[in-house]
Amino acid sequence: MQMMSVGMAIGVGLFLGSGRGIHIAGPALLIAYALAGAVVYCLMRGLGEMAVHSPHAGSFSEYARIHVSPFAGFVTGWTYWLQCIVGPMAELTASGVYMHYWYPDLPQWVPALIGLILLFGVHWVSVRMFGESEFWFALIKIIAIVGLILFGAVIIITGVTALGHGANLSNLWTSGGFFPNGGHGFFLTLQIAVFAFIGVEMLGITAGEAAHPERTIPKAVGNVIWRIIVFYIGALFILMVVQPWTRYTADVSPFVSVFSGAGLAGAAGIMNFVVLTSALSSCNANMFSASRLLYGLASAGSAPRALHHTTRRRVPGRALTVTTLAVGAGVLFNYLAPAHAFITLTSVVSASGLWTWSMIAFSHMRFRRRLALEGAPLPVFRLPGAPWTNIFVVAMVVIVLVSLAFESDTRVGLYTGAVWFALLTIVYVVRRRVARVW
């Protein structure tokens, strides 16, 4: 459970997206990630509280159905599926960008297509193969981040590489200040920070199948929260201390840049391989979630019953095939508009993820209200400061949604979200009317 959540949440949002964030906001990106981390803490504690009290397969979509409304549950389930198919599109796009390190002229869509085919094969063989591959993918990225932090600490203390001459804590404020591009640059990076953390809520999907949820869920939530925040904030802090933020570019992973700048070309190549496997790891976990969500929606009658089918190896083959074909649209996008693919896709993921986050917050508020009306005691594992912490989450969601409107590429996420919500509303209404007739 912990490795899957780490695998989902530590991906291109850190390894590639942070490069664009540093380029836009400089050291102020640390505050953006800290705010996003605080939101994640509130979300995971609230989700964990509901999961310990009443574990459900489907987790947050089921809690939205129970505590908010059936319509909210329907929209949340399908929107999370959208998030889980657009997420792999962004990850595959990043894999194409990473391959440019070795093959600058390679079309971006080629590695994206190869990666998609390989992952489809892994999922089709068995669930066990997925679990094994995701464990090792997640372990590689964790080792890489820890290695970067240790490497940066050695540079700062000893100055043993070329970076050592410029490695200094003052890099956080000397190159134009801590907010070099003002509040506007910081505001625009909120979406990047939120995108980086989207996926950690996947822990809620596995919670319903956990043995002894009263013990395993609090432990998993606590470990995932501190690991992700430490990895993100710690890694970004090191990156912006070992050299001025102005040396990083938006289209190259800062993890690769720091080793290249240190004169360690071999290490830079290894790190590029690590960030490539990181992208495949997040794509791997997202495809698993999307196929299982689609299977679950079919089981609940919210998707065609034909998708409620498994192979002899207990793999939801039809749901997996539909999910893979949907993710394949990202390969086509990379063929048609490679320069805009990554930022556009991340904006769609952010918009859909923000809906999920807001529904978790609303569900928890209604959950607490129901407990109060019933006179039931609060769970031992709970979200501190509720409902104010839930209000903080919703306020941050609104702020990030507003930030999406300030750039043409990110504005696509808002347009897509509006069309998606309208489509789901139509489907829900028609489905209910047809059910009444029959």
Automatic annotation (TrEMBL):
This is AAT family amino acid transporter/D-serine/D-alanine/glycine transporter. Keywords: Amino-acid transport, Cell membrane, Membrane, Transmembrane, Transmembrane helix, Transport. It is found in: Cell membrane. It comes from the Bacteria. Pfam families: AA_permease (PF00324). Residues 1-435 form the Amino acid permease/ SLC12A domain. It is a multi-pass membrane protein.
